[in-house]
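Annex B.
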Amino acid sequence: MAALELFFSFLLLLIFFFIIPTQASCPPSSCPRGPTVRFPFRLQRFQLRRCGYAGFDLSCNNQTLQTTLSLSNFSGNNFIVQTIDYGHQTLTVNDPDHCLPKRFLDRSFDNLLDTTPFRIHSFQMYTFLNCSPQATSIPATARNISCLSGENHTVFAMPSGAYDNWLQSTATSPSPSPSSSGLSCAISSVRVPARAANELGVFGDAIEDVALTWSTPDCRVCETSGRDCGLNRDSQIVCSDPKAKRKGLPRSAKYGIIIGVGIPGILCILGLASYVCGRINAYGRRNRPNMDLSTSASQQPAIVVVGLDGPTIESYPKTLLGESRRLPKSNDTTCSICLGEYQPKEELRTIPECNHYFHASCVDEWLKMNATCPVCRKSPEGSALVTPSSSMSSSSTSLPSP
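RING-type E3 ubiquitin transferase: predicted structure tokens.
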């Protein structure tokens, strides 16, 4: 176990000194449907807190997978981040429902100076008219805001100056006043970001976005020089070379770490393998006595009757066939062992108990291994039986008969 712990210790050192320094500590991130997020912004749950600047936290919307920015402490004041221009320190936002006029009426952009580091350079005053269907006199410069309108009312928007001029023109004209002519509109004047106001006056509610800028932290010098902006350990803005981050340790240092950690790691693996093999061998030795005992018991010779001894076999009568091949049993003309017919001048041997004839050579070999007649399986009476041990000893001391 000690070898295993030592190996994992060296592995952790390898990861800490070799792998970690070669990676950027605050790599860029992004939502699936959003721009690239890097300092001074920080994508919550994906980047460390030290990777961003205070007030620049972004998040990913779980439903739309878009990047969102909150301009207040209320979750209902979230905006979709469409683009981030790090060189000009500008980002563009839009309403999640694509109805920016609603956010103008909510005055979501009025208190940026108090709650966020973002600014809007200039505003224009706009007048919103919430008119009933009975309204008969609508200014020509008013634009329909369809995302705020409904079946029982229609919302219009126009520059406040143009609305004031229209009121003056209706007051001096002989026509009835707005209230008496059936205008039936509720009036609200709000501040609208200048660029969005220009689009609102031309396209109505088809406003693409609102541009926000920031001045602190100022990373424009780093961006224009192609370097990365970030915080050091003292929370100061610094510029770093991205190539130096990717380079990490020198190649010689990497090779030194690989050799210095790899060789001890290999030795630890070999030691661990030796330890495991030793444990396996020890376990095998503990179980070996029982196996040896069973093996020795199985190797002891069993006393089994297998055949007759040589003198007993030679005591059985022999017969030399003549030319006529005449035998006591006329139908007994074939040796039952080799299945060959008897020929003149062949020696036959007879088993006394049953008077069955066989070739002498065939039945001699048979009786050495079997103590019964090959035909009737009778065992001759008074025959000397042999065991494997006795047959081995007798074969080693006796000489073959001529």
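The domain at 307-397 is CATH 3.30.40.10 (Herpes Virus-1). The longest strand covers residues 123-131. Further annotation is deferred to the next reporting cycle.
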